[in-house]
Design goal:
With 94 residues, the protein is mostly helical. It has helices at residues 3-16, 21-29, 32-38, 41-49, 78-86, and strands at residues 52-53, 60-61, 66-67, 76-77. A hairpin with an 8-residue loop joins strand 3 (66-67) and strand 4 (76-77). The chain binds zinc ion.
């Protein structure tokens, strides 16, 4: 058994005992894309239901990071929304 196999077994054993410390640490290191790709189709759908694209920066955000009710009539992430509040670079765009 190599160390990866041992770790896999250890994580499963730990999880069965209610301990997910090591697993959580490993998941922390993965990118959002890697996590998404590892999800089942069903779970990917759940994630997609809760992902919104910002029309300014083109990134995906969860609902709580979005501002739909703004003066610019487009879906913005909080970061872009507050940036626009401070300078009007959106003027004349899109
Ligand atoms: Zn944005």
């Amino acid at each position: 058994m190599n160390s990866r196999d041992l770790l896999e077994k250890q994580i499963i054993d730990d999880a069965n005992n209610g301990d997910t410390t090591v697993l959580a640490e490993l998941l922390e290191r993965l990118s959002d894309e890697e996590i998404f790709n590892a999800l089942s189709d069903e779970n990917q759908e759940k994630v997609n239901e809760n992902r919104f694209i910002c029309e300014k920066c083109g990134e995906f955000f969860p609902r709580e990071e979005m501002v739909f009710d703004n003066d610019y009539d487009c879906d913005l992430c909080k970061g872009c929304n507050s940036a626009i509040q401070h300078n009007s670079f959106m003027t004349g765009g899109k």
